[in-house]
Amino acid sequence: MENTKSVSTIRLITIPALITLGITILRLLGELQHWPRPFFDVTAGGGGALIGISWLPIIFGPYFAVKLVMDGESPRSLGKAAGFGFLGLLVAFGGIWLLQATFSHPSILALLAFVLTLVAAFIPRIGWRKLGNVLLAYAFAARIPVLVVMYVAMRGNGGAGWGTHYDVTAPMFANLSFFKKYFDEAVLPQMTMWIAWTSIVGSLFGVAAASIARRLKRPVRATA
């Protein structure tokens, strides 16, 4: 049974979401001002720039997990939680493999690949429902502002873009209408693959942190 005094998901994610928004804005500003690598990068995908939000699940996953454990919302089995986290990772890899196999010739299979990665995002929730809910809420709170930034950046300069990684267009999408291009390059990856990345990575690192936190807090009331 769920803890009747369950910690609020909104309260948990508010500060992390604001920090994430701040980093998104900082990254956009840095790219517009051509601040140096490796902190900023305007190439497609961001080039693994150090200033970015993709690293944050490694930090916030453990943060959320430890807060939940300390509030008595640990899962019954951390092993089960870890197992579903790895299962989600395998399913996500399957979706990415399918996407890569079909990327040069977009078809319904490419769309199914994106859907598969989104399904993967919900798998860790099976092992630890509360952490899964928190990570999913945080993932959407982190990625929806990116969609807004991408929309404005892609519209900038009369549709030529601002010259940031937020508006880089792959050659295969260059002749598409703006909204088709935006859907393919922004909405699909941000609302599927990046949601999965945040949920799964946050879950795996969170479970590892929870195993330490549980040893420091005894006894712990287990919740599904």
Would you kindly provide a written description of the structure presented here, covering whatever features stand out?
The protein is mainly α and 224 residues long. It has helices at 9-32, 56-70, 78-102, 108-122, 124-127, 129-155, 178-191, 193-216. The protein has one domain (9-216). Residues 1-5 have low confidence and may be disordered. Helix 6 runs antiparallel to helix 7 (178-191).
Secondary structure tally, helices: 8
Total strands: 0
User: Which stretches are low in confidence, meaning pLDDT under 50 for 5 or more residues running?
Assistant: 1-5
Instruction: Provide the β-strand percentage band.
Output: under 5%
Question: What fraction, in percent, of the residue positions are helical?
Answer: 55-70%
Mean pLDDT: 90
Radius of gyration, taken over Cα atoms and rounded to an integer in Å: 19 Å
- What distance separates the N and C termini? 7 Å
Q: Work out the count of structural domains.
A: 1
Note the run of SSEs as H and E: HHHHHHHH
Backbone shape: globular
Structural class: mainly alpha
Q: Give a short account of the largest sheet.
A: none
